[in-house]
Amino acid sequence: MNGRWFGARGPERVLWDFLVFRKVRAVLGGQIRLILSGGAPLSGDTQRFTNICIGAPIGQGYGLTETCAGGTFTEYDDTSVGRVGPPLPCSFIKLIDWSEGGYLLSDKPMSRGEIVIGGPNVTLGYFKSEDKTNEVYKVDETGMRWFYTGDIGQFHDDGCLEIVDRKKDIVKLFSTGNMFP
Description:
By secondary structure, the protein is an alpha+beta fold. The protein is built from three helices and eight strands. The protein has helices at 10-27, 44-54, 130-136; strands at 35-37, 58-62, 72-73, 92-96, 112-118, 137-139, 145-155, 161-166. The strands form two sheets. Strands 4, 5, 6, 7 and 8 form a five-stranded antiparallel β-sheet that branches. A three-stranded mixed β-sheet has the order 1-2-3, covered by helices on one side. It is elongated. Mean pLDDT is 85; it is low at 1-7.
């Protein structure tokens, strides 16, 4: 892999690279070798477009403040899109049924459910908020402390996680009549 246009072949690649994409890379300094993305997962189209324009792979990570930012991360040579990689060595990740939303471990072709993260990277709870802590942190019969993320995911056959939904909407929309009370 030469760091340009993953999967592209032939003279078209050289032409587009020369006419358009080398200028995009030059604006960004011309030396980008890897891009890291965290927070919300990138859509497959955005990831593919950026790979083509910049000619560098995008490593996606998934984690939350409650998991000390660590959860999953794509491997350098993974050219798939729309996934956030396998669990980091410090993280144990499992899916649990969320029947209210229609996401079940019995779903076919892939099990789907709420993402739950355990391991030494999971914080003890929220500062001075015991109710919230008890709502999203649970200890199982083995003594493992689990954080219930509220994100919905599915695992691919190679162990990579894909975020497919969220239990709660992050953005709250207001009607014009209630925006300014």
